[in-house]
Amino acid sequence: MKRDLLLESHGASSLSDLARRLARTRRQLLRRWLAETLKRCARTDADAKRGLIGYFAYVLSEVCAALLIAESDASVSVNAGIAQPGRFWPAEWRVTDLFRNIELLQHCLKDEIRAYFGPVAASVDVHMRAHEIVERTFRAIIECAIDGQLQRQAAEVSTAQDSLQKALTTLQATEERLRVATSAAGIGIFEWSGASRKGVWENRQMYEITGQPEHRGPLTETEFMTSVVHPADVELLRSHFQSRLVSGQPVHVAFRLYRVTDRALRTVEMFGYLRPPVQQDDYVFVGSLCDVTERADAEAKLKDADRRKDIFLATLAHELRNPLAPVRNAAHLLGHSAGADPVKREWLRNVIERQTGHLSHLIDDLLDVSRITTGKIELRREVFDIRRALDHALEITMPAAHQRHHDIVRLPLDQPVHVDGDPARMTQMFSNLLDNAIKYTDDGGRIVVSASVVGRDISVTVSDTGTGISGEALPHVFDLFVQGSGHGEQSRGGLGIGLSVCKTLTEMHGGTITARSEGRNRGSEFEIRLPICEDSNQQATDVGEAGQRSPVPLRILIVDDNTDAALSLAMIFDTHDVRTAHSGEEALQIAVAFEPHVVFLDLGLPGISGYDVARRLREMARDQHAAGKRLEIVAVSGYGQPEDQARSIMAGCDSHLVKPVKIEALLAIVARIASNSD
């Protein structure tokens, strides 16, 4: 406002007149200046013109203000009016643009001043003073503009430095996280130069994976390919590299290598990117390496287990079908003319008994595997003479040995040797070894069973003159579902689980089992070692012959919804008083009047379940027990897991037999009850 008043005041000096002249002619000055300036400007659009007009107005006002102030008080510095010219300086102007535009504007103003003082009578001092004021004003404007530019550049540099520092901090944090992640994951990172054929850099995990000592520096590509990678995988890796170098796709390949220090064979997986070469072979490869040996081994084991599972299922189907054919044929012949001939009928009976026994043996093996793998198998331990288990195993396997004309040689113990274990399971261990020897020894072979005391252990050895076991197959002979001798020959029957079960049972008894063979057609030898019971003077109780017929007739009730099963079982006890029932209701009705000594009870009955029948029979037997009579209930079921047996005992059963039940076991129960009834 002060400036406007000064411009409009009357009687002003020549300097103030000059200021008013410049204000009046500002449009003409602006047009001349714009004409000169736009010729040299890169931009001539509306925004550029607005920037120039604004800056012109600012400079002209500063010059006029300086003239008016100098006229009123010569002692005041003309620089006092110049403040923050950067506010009127367009941001897109460079320093050279600013100086050029100021210089053009200064020329325009000086031309106008000379034109003003030309026709006017004025002293030379006033004229020179006007030029001096304009000169100083423009110098102050330039100095302020330079200072503003320096401040702006300093701010930009400071901002850039802050951004750079933040970027460096972020990069360091990222590198640290990557270092921690790669260390935790065991991932090696490295860089190769194609032109120099050198290893540029690799992290500590890379040294650990390859076994390269750190003081030797990173491996070169040539060293890695020739001395580390497995020779059989070098071509795979090279061809993969070449194809990815052409296609530009990432490298992703698994291969084997030998560690530099210990030459240990490891399986690794490589992943990385190849930067395209500017010149031939001038590529850079940045990659990672991860040791996947455990994963590769696990995958190989899974594939092998899957393969053996398929073989097992095919073998199981074959083994189950084999005995069904003679059973079906025998059943057909019994229903026709062969049933009338006693000799043929006896032969057919033996066929059925032998084949059903084989089926029962297969099912028992499968159940044993299930119990072992789920940890549900239990040993019924007692102290007994191990010769008892060996004798029983020989009795079980002797028919098969005679059928193949084998010579069984037994080298017995002279004195009793007592062990703490399950007699039935130990018998199963020895019979499995004998079955294996009989199976893989050609007809007319020789099998030797020997036992001897070795220190505090009893050693039982089964050797044969059979096909032997190859060196490659020997470490896997106790694996589940492994069959054959390892020479590529076909299996000779069975499911390939007998030796695996034998090994598990031996270890459960605190013993060890070892297989030995000198190779093809050199026979094999299996040795089981078991700890001897410390209390060797304890006498073992031997079970009597279960096949003896009971001299005292008993009242026996057989309950089974399968009519054939009930009637065939009744025929076995033909010397006793036997009744059969095919439902729970019928069994309870018969039991009231019959008062049986023993009940063989199928648990899976229709209507009233076998468990409920057992509870009611037990309630009915309380009065009989008070009168001196004792009822024994024997559960007969196809379910034989420990929880099934516990449930039947809770229902009131005295014992639990699993189908198909051995005839000897049934006869033994009846014989025991009959002997107690004497």
TrEMBL record:
EC number(s) recorded for this UniProt protein: 2.7.13.3
Gene Ontology MF annotations: histidine phosphotransfer kinase activity; phosphorelay sensor kinase activity
Matching SUPFAM superfamilies: ATPase domain of HSP90 chaperone/DNA topoisomerase II/histidine kinase, CheY-like, Homodimeric domain of signal transducing histidine kinase, PYP-like sensor domain (PAS domain)
Domain of life where this protein originates: Bacteria
Domain Histidine kinase stretches: 315-534
Residue numbers of 4-aspartylphosphate PTMs: 602
Keywords: Kinase, Phosphoprotein, Transferase
Gene3D superfamilies documented for this protein: 1.10.287.130, 3.40.50.2300, Histidine kinase-like ATPase, C-terminal domain, PAS domain
Topology class, membrane: Multi-pass membrane protein
Catalyzed reactions per annotation: ATP + protein L-histidine = ADP + protein N-phospho-L-histidine
UniProt-annotated location(s): Cell inner membrane
Name under which the protein is recorded: histidine kinase
Lineage: Bacteria, Pseudomonadati, Pseudomonadota, Betaproteobacteria, Burkholderiales
